[in-house]
């Protein structure tokens, strides 16, 4: 029959068209997420402020209040912390007098609060405080989990004085009025979210939820219903026609201010198509259904998918076909013209394979029709077409969500669980099959597992409340744990003051011994003036690598060649003779390679350990740091040790003219480019600084004229106890596990050798408190130095996404959930921020002293900086500069990155030294 064929065709959407629908949905979703276009979007993408899904550890008693069309439902849910395997639920349903929905807002909330009181009267709980989750299925402008302004009533509600107000506050106030002081409204939610929350499978969170058709609330065993003896729970239509929600990347939810982690977004996709986007697939039957509905031109998508409407679509198709004389030739169709006489439930019965035909006959006869066998067959075909169309459209919407998630998480393949609720899905396996297979076709890069949800609104609301509570408790504990690492402005000023005091002590001849900051004279009295020329050898010892260099200082440029040599730990921590012999071997190897054996070049030796310098080429090692401990060196002149080794090795072509610290080298090499560079800073394996001090202030050196570079050795700041207030338990642990316990305490808060260790100890503490990795102990994380400082850089880099974090943790055999990653990032941020701020407090003391030395109101100065941590960390330099600006507002400080300061700088010191002596 061509007419029937035409009707069926109109109700069938081709795969190409479904792709198109999916793409339109994705476009609308993006529009809803963006701040600029949110207001005009049909798919509103409302933020829910639910930033986590249940992890199974949720525990306790929770109260849920759900406002339904004609009832208020209260639930008492007990979660046992057992992975939510067996939540216990009791509930009660209160009929709501109709006048309440039309009267004053206050009366509505008073009524709800009275229901709560009556319900609680029959329940005993050991808990002092009872958290309440409020299911409020109206459009709200939510700004927090417990803050939501009602935008507009719908579903026949018209209470005065509620629109524009915070409904959480209204409920809380009404509950207080009932003297229920122990009940706290902690979360407000829409009904979709609950579905997502109840579908979590252990270890595999459910991150998408769909509602298709009505959710009939009490799907729970009768015994849980507290309605009095023999009472039957009424069936409550709880859900909307169709809607969905999913966990979106928080930074993309522009309407909410969260920027890290994820947030559940309520798509409100029922409104999809209201601006005409679906017009090319609408049939005349859809148009009739819309015209007869209470909200014409609204919720066009829902009217094709929601179970409220499927019966109606079939009814209009039947009317049209009867008018074309291809159906019900022998009867009057008058009864068919009444709205809602054909229920969706009947449509679902009709399409069943076994009794479908009989059901069709029965349903049609009930309408006074006398259907033939053929009529029944055609009716069944039409019903199938309408239900299938709903399923395919739903699949297009789901595919849009999945692809959006997959793209925004930058995944090649998304594997995800999807909770589904609603009578279309539960009542009809074919719907689920179509949904699953078409979704697979439209989102081939995603693997979605559909999970049926039962009573998502009730139990789910309890889960949301529980999760909110869990997050709040965890937040408090995390804040408590990290609090000692967070430095206030006053703390930083105190540290700056302490550094200043230690500097003064260190400079004074009598007080020097009492200072933790040694303030060592370097005998470097000038920075380069640009007239330096010649070829030099340089050694760089004291960093991660030992290097030998040749530096050729010409008129316009400096050219360098270098080799990196390994110093094995056995040599670093062996005898001094072996160490210096090894160094000479490396020099000889280098000279051979560079064909420099015949020349005697001046040599600058960058030796980055604290030395008492007695002249430019005379430096007594005070103590080893940074993992070195070679014996027989402390108390010796390192130039002498080098010369003795040369002698042992019969190498007579060495002319050591200067020993410099790497800070000095850095300052010198930057000074070659910028004459204002009078400070050197290192933030690499260790940390240290030097600056140009007035010679007259240096009590440990004779002379009143000019300036001398002071190697502060600030890494030891605090070794005399002056920073004890600021050390956290984690810092103490890190220190206890080093070879120089109690030494270099400031350095151990700041530099690359230690930041990863601090983070590692914090992570272990978080695991122990079950705040991380679900409390699972992880042996690899107990290994010293396994968490490298360079991880902080990758983890904190914006835009790399949390997959990066997950990958790093995976390498450490840690199975990190999304929230674990967010927390690990927070820990890294706290540790690196503190390091940068401490460094800034130290520098503030230096620049302020220089400014005062020179009697200036404003000082403009440049800091030459070296060190991989400073250079590679994404935020360190910015935090350092901001804090310094804040602490020393009268100093205008520029930072100049040194390129190989320790190599070039040593040569330049040698060059400056030779400037006077050679022609
Ligand atoms: P040194 O100070 O020994 O001369 P570097 O300046 O290269 O050497 O610093 C080495 C330190 O930098 C190491 O302790 C390491 O932890 C740290 N580091 C290496 N890569 C990075 C990175 N990408 N981000 C932050 N720190 C890093
Ligand atoms: Mg270095």
TrEMBL record:
Entries under Pfam families matching the protein: Hexokinase_1, Hexokinase_2
EC number, UniProt record: 2.7.1.1
Keyword Magnesium: no
GO cellular-component term (any): cytosol
TM regions (residue ranges): none
PANTHER family linked: HEXOKINASE (PTHR19443), HEXOKINASE-3 (PTHR19443:SF1)
Role summary: Catalyzes the phosphorylation of various hexoses to hexose 6-phosphate.
Protein name: hexokinase
Organism expressing this protein natively: Syrrhaptes paradoxus
Gene name in the database record: Hk2_0
């Amino acid at each position: 029959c061509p007419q029937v064929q035409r009707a069926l065709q109109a109700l069938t959407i081709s795969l190409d068209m479904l792709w198109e629908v999916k793409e339109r949905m994705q476009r609308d979703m993006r529009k809803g997420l963006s701040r600029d276009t949110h207001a005009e979007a049909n798919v509103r993408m409302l933020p829910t402020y639910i930033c986590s899904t249940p992890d199974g550890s949720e525990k306790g008693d929770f109260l849920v209040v759900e406002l339904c069309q004609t009832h208020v439902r209260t639930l008492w849910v007990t979660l046992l912390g057992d992975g939510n395997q067996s939540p216990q639920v009791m509930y009660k349903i209160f009929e709501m007098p109709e006048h309440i929905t039309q009267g004053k807002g206050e009366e509505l909330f008073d009524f709800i609060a009275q229901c709560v009181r009556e319900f609680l009267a029959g329940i005993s709980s050991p808990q002092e405080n009872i958290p309440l989750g409020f299911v409020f299925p109206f459009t709200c402008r939510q700004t927090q989990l417990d803050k939501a302004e009602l935008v507009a009533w719908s579903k026949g509600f018209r209470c005065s004085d509620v629109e524009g107000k915070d409904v959480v506050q209204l409920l809380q106030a009404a509950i207080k009025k009932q003297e229920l002081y122990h009940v706290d409204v902690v979360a407000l939610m829409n009904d979709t979210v609950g579905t997502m929350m109840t579908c979590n499978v252990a270890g595999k969170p459910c991150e998408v939820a769909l509602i298709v058709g009505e959710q009939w609330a009490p799907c729970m065993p009768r015994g849980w219903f507290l309605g009095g003896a023999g009472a039957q729970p009424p069936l409550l239509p709880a859900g909307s026609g169709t809607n969905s929600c999913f966990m979106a990347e928080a930074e993309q939810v522009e309407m909410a201010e969260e920027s890290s982690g994820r947030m559940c977004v309520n798509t409100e996709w029922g409104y999809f198509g209201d601006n005409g986007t679906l017009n090319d697939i609408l049939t005349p039957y859809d148009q009739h259904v819309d015209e007869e509905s209470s909200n014409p031109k609204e919720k066009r998508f829902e009217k094709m998918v929601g179970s409220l409407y499927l019966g109606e679509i079939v009814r209009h198709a039947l009317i049209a076909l009867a008018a074309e004389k291809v159906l019900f030739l022998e009867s009057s169709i008058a009864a068919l013209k009444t709205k809602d006489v054909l229920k969706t439930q009947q449509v679902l019965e009709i399409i069943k394979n076994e009794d479908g035909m009989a059901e069709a006959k029965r349903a049609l006869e009930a309408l006074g029709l006398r259907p033939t066998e053929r009529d029944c067959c055609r009716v069944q075909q039409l019903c199938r077409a309408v239900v299938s169309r709903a399923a395919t459209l739903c699949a297009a919407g789901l595919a849009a969500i999945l692809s959006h998630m997959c793209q925004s998480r930058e995944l090649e393949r998304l594997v995800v669980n999807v909770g589904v609720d609603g009578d279309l899905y539960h009542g009809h396996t074919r719907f689920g099959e179509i949904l699953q297979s078409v979704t697979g076709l439209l989102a081939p890069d995603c693997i979605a597992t559909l999970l049926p949800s039962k009573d998502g609104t009730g139990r789910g609301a309890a889960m949301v409340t529980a999760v909110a509570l869990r997050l709040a408790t965890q937040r408090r504990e995390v804040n408590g744990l990290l609090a000692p690492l967070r430095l206030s402005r006053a703390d930083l000023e105190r540290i700056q003051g302490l550094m200043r005091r230690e500097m003064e002590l260190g400079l004074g001849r009598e007080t020097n011994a009492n200072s933790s900051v040694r303030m060592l004279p370097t005998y470097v009295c000038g920075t380069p003036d640009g007239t330096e020329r010649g070829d030099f050898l340089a050694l760089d010892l004291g960093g991660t690598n030992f290097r030998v260099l040749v530096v050729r200082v010409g008129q316009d440029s400096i050219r360098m060649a270098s080799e990196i040599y390994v110093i094995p730990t056995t040599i670093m921590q062996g005898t001094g003779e072996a160490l210096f012999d090894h160094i000479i071997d490396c020099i000889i190897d280098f000279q051979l390679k560079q064909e420099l054996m015949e020349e005697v070049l001046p040599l600058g030796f960058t030796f980055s350990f604290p030395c008492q310098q007695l002249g430019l080429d005379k430096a007594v090692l005070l103590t080893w740091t940074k993992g070195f401990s070679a014996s027989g060196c402390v108390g010796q002149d390192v130039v002498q040790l080098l010369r003795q080794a040369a002698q042992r090795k019969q190498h007579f072509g060495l002319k050591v003219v200067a020993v410099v610290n790497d800070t000095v080298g850095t300052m010198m090499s930057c000074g070659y480019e910028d004459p204002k560079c009078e400070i050197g800073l290192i933030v690499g394996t260790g940390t240290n600084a030097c600056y140009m001090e007035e010679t007259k202030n240096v009590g440990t050196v004779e002379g009143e004229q000019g300036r001398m570079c002071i190697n502060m050795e600030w890494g030891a700041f605090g070794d005399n106890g002056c920073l004890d207030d600021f050390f956290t338990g984690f810092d103490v642990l890190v220190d206890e596990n080093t070879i120089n316990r109690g030494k270099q305490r400031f350095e151990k808060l700041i530099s690359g050798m230690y930041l990863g260790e601090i983070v590692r100890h914090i992570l272990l503490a978080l695991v122990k408190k079950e705040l991380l990795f679900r409390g699972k102990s992880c042996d690899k994380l107990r290994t010293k130095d396994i968490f490298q400082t360079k991880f902080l850089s990758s983890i904190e880099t914006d835009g790399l996404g949390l997959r990066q974090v997950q990958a790093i943790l995976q390498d450490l055999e840690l199975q990190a959930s999304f929230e674990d990653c967010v927390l690990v990032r927070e820990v890294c941020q706290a540790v690196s921020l503190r390091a940068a701020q401490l460094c800034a407090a130290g520098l503030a003391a230096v620049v302020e002293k220089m400014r005062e030395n020179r009697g200036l109101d404003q000082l403009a100065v440049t800091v030459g900086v070296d060190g991989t941590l400073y250079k590679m960390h994404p935020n360190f330099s910015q935090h350092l500069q901001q804090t310094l600006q804040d602490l020393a507002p009268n100093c205008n400080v520029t930072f100049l990155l040194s390129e190989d300061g320790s190599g070039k700088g040593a040569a330049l010191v040698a060059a400056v030294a030779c400037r006077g002596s050679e022609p």
